[in-house]
Amino acid sequence: MKISSPLLSSGYKLVVENIVVDVEQWLSRLKLLPPIQQTTVDEHEQVFQMYTGDYLGDCDYLWAESERERLRRLWLYHAQQLSEFYIKNESYIAAIKVQEKVQALFADAEDNYFTLMKLYDLLNNTAAVEEQYWLLKKTLQEHLAVEPSEEIEEWYRSWKQINIMS
User: Fold this and answer.
1) Residues 108, 144: contact at Cβ < 8 Å?
2) Are 102 and 73 in contact (CB under 8 A)?
3) Are 81 and 36 contacting, i.e. CB atoms less than 8 angstroms apart?
4) What is the 3-state secondary structure (H, E, C) of the chain?
């Protein structure tokens, strides 16, 4: 590694050689992924698990924010594709694990709670549906001072009615 400053007023230049950068490694693997199917889902799962949080998440560098957001969106898109694949193939537990990781990293994503509520409903896990609903309400109140969307409220009321009767 070499640090140089060709012109003192222009800043510094960092030259790195033969260094593995986790972000570049992840992006490279993500770009090379084939379409998700039964034979490739393990590879997709590996790339999904490689993401452990925001780019330079421990640092508040303003200059890194656009890259942080770009990488986050790429990962969330991939997570959504993986989750939809699992749901389509009725691998609900695997879909739940994907959604739980999304929720752990991005707690403000309302649609994530809703997806988990519906997945837990498919597994007849009423306690988990209730827990997701109340976690969503609490998170939205604490972070944004709002209530869940009307779509979620309507689904929850309907779900509650059906579960009271059964």
Assistant:
1) yes
2) no
3) yes
4) CEEECCCHHHCCEEECCCCCCHHHHHHHHHHCCCCCCCCCHHHHHHHHHHCCCCCCCCCCCHHHHHHHHHHHHHHHHHHHHHHHHHHHCCCHHHHHHHHHHHHHHCCCCHHHHHHHHHHHHHCCCHHHHHHHHHHHHHHHHHHHCCCCCHHHHHHHHHHHHHHHHC
How buried is 92 (Cβ within 10 angstroms: 0-12 exposed, 13-18 middle, 19+ buried)? middle
Burial label, 51 (beta-carbon count in 10 A; 0-12, 13-18, 19+): buried
Q: Which residue has the tokens 């779900």?
A: 159
Cβ–Cβ under 8 Å, residues 116 and 103: yes
pLDDT in tens, 7-32: 656 666 667 777 777 888 999 999 99
Give pTM, 2 decimals: 0.84
